[in-house]
């Protein structure tokens, strides 16, 4: 089957992946539409254990400690189109929709929960970064994935709409396209709750500390979700410094990547004298910028990326006003063996609030770093993987580190269909609160793991790219 590549050459790993040309439908004139996608069901068993949680927290917990079921690993269908303007120039668009292989489209993900709560459209910077426990009332979504329109040219591509930024930097799908080789996790099947790129590399902890020193952590996801909205993104063409190398870079800007601007209410209490001036200056002060560069060649894969997110509608003196993050990665591949390292550093400005015995709370930055070491070996149609990921303490607060270990085996049924076993073990330190991706509605019946608890999961997974 002839391979057709997605219209954005330097796209991120899980979003604008190669289109496998299952259907190429001529519409009119020089316009055509390509249909591609992913089917990704899994049979999994998950268990929460006490780990480093206190006895009191464990005995009073409400989460479901164990669960077995059939789940979905972010299946999607993508419609992409190109329409020629002139030689080398095209109008392009992409509509990516998510669907679930295990439930009907109208099935509520959280039966009985309030479907109106959505952390991606909250009113403060702190909440805008929250990623765990979204009370979503739908199991699928039209155009919920990367959905945009733009223009491609010999000088690069510019798109407007929803686009994945930062969170997936380093994630590798080199088995689909040499341009999407990355230094981080590179399984041909994945169990999305067990991907450390979600739970740690793109998660961070902000904290509140009581006057007695008790730490209450909050788990947050960078950008609040995996698709940044209101985005303008430029992707360079694939540059070739030599016959064996590929180099690319991307730049993006968003006024508000976590939701529509109209959803934000300014946190200032209006007064007759200053309401207009304060509201305007605070709202207009927020925006997000992103940049990345990637290289593949001579067995090496390298990435460097940067994110600066200034939250909308938040006073400079408030908690959680700005998130700064950067990520670096390097790997080397020889024959069937690959080893890499990825380093991520994030800083939530005013992300730690420490209560005082007398007077107001003191704010300080929530800083954390994460180191990931993935290794893999492929032989014939088989591949085995081991990935170790460790998050350090947040801003030197004791007991806020965590570590995760993944062991994976997968087998290539065809060049684009893979099946395998995925095992994950996540250990939080006593004051850490890192969550598996999608916890809060799947798995565990709508329950997230508590502070200091551990989590393990084993899944039989299928990934079929069509």
What is the strand and helix layout of this fold?
Elements: E1 23-28, E2 31-39, E3 41-49, H1 55-59, E4 66-72, E5 76-86, E6 89-98, H2 125-128, E7 148-153, E8 156-163, H3 196-201, E9 203-209, E10 215-221, E11 228-235, E12 245-254, H4 275-285, E13 287-297, E14 300-310, E15 322-334, E16 337-354, E17 362-379, E18 382-391, E19 402-414, E20 417-428, E21 454-465
Parallel strand pairs: 9-16
Antiparallel strand pairs: 1-2, 2-5, 2-21, 3-4, 3-21, 5-6, 6-7, 7-8, 8-11, 9-10, 11-12, 12-13, 13-14, 14-15, 15-16, 16-17, 17-18, 18-19, 19-20, 20-21
Structure write-up:
This protein is mostly beta strands. It has a single domain (23-465), classed as Beta Barrel (Porin), CATH 2.40.160.10. The chain has helices at residues 55-59, 125-128, 196-201, 275-285, and strands at residues 23-28, 31-39, 41-49, 66-72, 76-86, 89-98, 148-153, 156-163, 203-209, 215-221, 228-235, 245-254, 287-297, 300-310, 322-334, 337-354, 362-379, 382-391, 402-414, 417-428, 454-465. The protein has a 16-stranded antiparallel β-barrel. A hairpin with a 7-residue loop joins strand 16 and strand 17. The longest helix is centred in the middle third of the chain and has 11 residues, at 275-285. The protein is globular and about 70 Å long. The model is unreliable at 1-21, 110-137, 262-267 and 274-282 (pLDDT under 50).
């Amino acid at each position: 089957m002839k391979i057709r590549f997605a219209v954005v050459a330097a796209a991120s790993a899980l979003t604008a992946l190669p289109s496998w040309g299952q259907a190429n439908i001529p519409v009119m004139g020089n316009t055509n539409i390509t249909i591609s996608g992913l089917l990704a069901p899994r049979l999994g068993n998950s268990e929460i254990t006490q780990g480093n949680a206190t006895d009191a927290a464990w005995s009073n917990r409400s989460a479901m400690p164990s669960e077995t079921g059939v789940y979905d690993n972010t299946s999607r269908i993508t419609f992409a189109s190109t329409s020629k303007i002139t030689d080398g120039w095209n109008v392009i668009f992409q509509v990516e929709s998510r669907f679930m292989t295990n439930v009907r489209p109208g099935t509520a993900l959280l039966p009985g929960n309030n479907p109106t709560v959505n952390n991606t459209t909250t009113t403060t910077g702190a909440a805008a970064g929250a990623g765990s426990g979204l009370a979503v009332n739908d199991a699928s979504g039209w155009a919920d994935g990367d959905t945009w329109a733009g223009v491609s040219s010999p000088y690069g591509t510019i798109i407007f709409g929803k686009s994945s930024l930062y969170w997936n930097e380093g994630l590798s799908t080199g088995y689909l396209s040499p341009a999407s080789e990355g230094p981080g996790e590179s399984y041909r099947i994945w169990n999305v709750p067990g991907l450390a790129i979600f739970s740690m590399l793109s998660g961070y902890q902000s904290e509140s500390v009581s006057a007695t020193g008790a730490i209450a952590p909050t788990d947050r996801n960078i950008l609040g979700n995996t698709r940044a909205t209101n985005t303008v993104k430029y992707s360079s063409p694939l540059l070739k410094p030599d016959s064996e190398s590929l180099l690319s870079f991307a730049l993006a800007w968003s006024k508000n990547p976590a939701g529509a601007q109209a959803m934000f209410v300014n946190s200032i209490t209006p007064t007759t004298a200053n309401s207009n001036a304060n509201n305007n200056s605070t709202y207009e002060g927020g925006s997000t910028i992103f940049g990345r560069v990637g290289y593949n060649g001579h067995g090496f894969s390298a990435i460097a990326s940067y994110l600066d997110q200034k939250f909308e509608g938040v006073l400079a003196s408030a908690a959680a006003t700005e998130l700064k993050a950067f990520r670096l990665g390097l790997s080397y591949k020889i024959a069937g063996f690959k080893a890499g390292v990825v380093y991520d550093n994030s800083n939530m400005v005013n992300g730690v609030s420490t209560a005082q015995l007398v007077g107001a709370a003191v704010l300080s930055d929530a800083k954390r770093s994460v180191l990931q070491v993935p290794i893999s070996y492929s032989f014939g149609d088989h591949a085995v993987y081991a990935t170790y990921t460790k998050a350090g303490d947040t801003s030197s607060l004791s007991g806020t580190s965590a570590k995760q270990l993944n062991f994976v085996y997968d087998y290539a049924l065809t060049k684009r269909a893979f099946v395998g076993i995925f095992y994950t073990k996540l250990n939080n330190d006593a004051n850490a609160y890192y969550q598996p991706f999608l916890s809060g509605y799947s798995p565990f019946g709508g329950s997230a793991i508590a502070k200091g608890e551990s989590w393990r999961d084993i899944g039989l997974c299928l990934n079929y790219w069509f």
